Amino acid sequence: MSRFADFPNPTLAVDIVALSVADTRLHCLLLRRDDAALVGGDWAFPGAVVHHGKPVEEAVARAAQIKAGLGALHLEQLATYGDPARDPRGHVVSVAWMAIAPHALLLDKVTANPDLCLAPVIVDWPGETGGPAQALGADGQPLRLAFDHAAILGDAVKRLRGKIDYSPIGFGFVPPRFTLRAVQEVHEAILGRPLTKPAFRRKLLDRHPLHPTGTLETGGAFRPAELYERDPAQEM
Amino acid sequence: MSRFADFPNPTLAVDIVALSVADTRLHCLLLRRDDAALVGGDWAFPGAVVHHGKPVEEAVARAAQIKAGLGALHLEQLATYGDPARDPRGHVVSVAWMAIAPHALLLDKVTANPDLCLAPVIVDWPGETGGPAQALGADGQPLRLAFDHAAILGDAVKRLRGKIDYSPIGFGFVPPRFTLRAVQEVHEAILGRPLTKPAFRRKLLDRHPLHPTGTLETGGAFRPAELYERDPAQEM
DNA sequence: TCAAAAGTGTTGATACTACACCCATGG
DNA sequence: CCATGGGTGTAGTATCAACACTTTTGA
Description:
Two copies of one chain form a homodimer. By secondary structure, chain A is α+β, with helices and mostly antiparallel strands. The first copy, chain A, is built from six helices and eleven strands. In chain A, strands 1, 2, 3, 4, 5, 6, 7 and 8 form an eight-stranded mixed beta sheet that branches. The first copy, chain A, has a three-stranded antiparallel beta sheet with strand order 9-11-10. In chain A, a hairpin with a 2-residue loop joins strand 1 (11-22) and strand 2 (25-32). Chain A is globular. In chain A, 36% of the residues are buried. The interface between A and B is medium-sized, with 31 and 31 residues. Chain A binds a DNA duplex through residues 179-181, 196-199, 201-203, 217, 220-226. Chains A, B: Residues 210-236 are annotated as: Disordered.
């Protein structure tokens, strides 16, 4: 390490793109910035600096748990963003991570912390083209995101769209017991288009080992749907 | 940046996984290490340290061009590896990049630099399971790779296998004018299994805008194949 | 004219979509 | 018994893999 100390080093950080689905729409967790004028936006993803000698995952845990209050959830590395101009305060290279959680879990943290918000996510581009994404405020207007976080958000959506079909990642958005309709809403929110119910049900049931629990949804009007759960041996 | 200078920082570096296909087998470019005892292996991917204020891509260019002599080729970020123990000399977080090139291009660099080699790549795991990969020496025995480079190599192959079907990335392994058979060999090398010719031809021609050039392959015995080229407007 | 590889046509199986339909429940 | 969403059956279509076949060249 003596050899490396000679080089002037960029700072290394992580940013957490925490996502959930509600009302057939993707939402992301954002943290209010005091220094909006300095960092070029009012809102940003929760982040943390990587410390020397500690795993990158330690910074991820710090950003996700302490700053945003998240517990155990699905975490996946997205990409690393290294433009020297991305942070006006200095050269900060950031490893972006995507966190997937049921909406209620993120909502709890938002109500507990007034500096957090859960903003609906909008993408302009169709399919898997790629590009930046927007987060909407309570008034329906796009929020000003700091740094390159609009681009990171777009990359997160692109990653999700690319793997939602074949991977079990969609189950990260629903509680351990869920209706098939809830999973369908997750897929519709991510893909940004409606799906046909019978086709979706069948694909889901033969692609993933799901068990009907026998218990039914409660609280809804009309016929209650059956609750399913994933095979506990399966991982993301 | 004054705020960030307080934190002790890991060193940030890049590693280049340069890949090509020959003899229906994937090959990777490796650099001989003088310090094999220190870094835990005789061979490693070419790398470079990221300098403060310079884009990460600048380090990629340095690692790819100066150390390995590569020119313009397809580059794609793989992932970032941050285990504090991955480099015995100190905490070095590395952003791994995949470089795709025609085999002849890498072979030229290897013959020009005796510290480089182009090693066949072997994976134990089937399909898209994932896991570490091995690079073979001239004697057919696995080479000792430094750091976590066996895991990085495995991740590179996994990425390739995941996107070779729908993405045009396979064309990065062949020259601008190529036979369809050459592209098929690339796909077979990446997937690790034989493909049927008619199905492959049709899928390739449907999915990508390819133009027959009218000129034929030369130098082969038997019937020469037609040379195709990609639509110049298309990008990776 | 023969061997080997280029390139094409056809068929059978599979997967997916779309539509129609039945079921169960609260009011 | 009616409106509404849960859940299933069926048929048409597009996709894909395997096989057989024809074509073209060098020796």
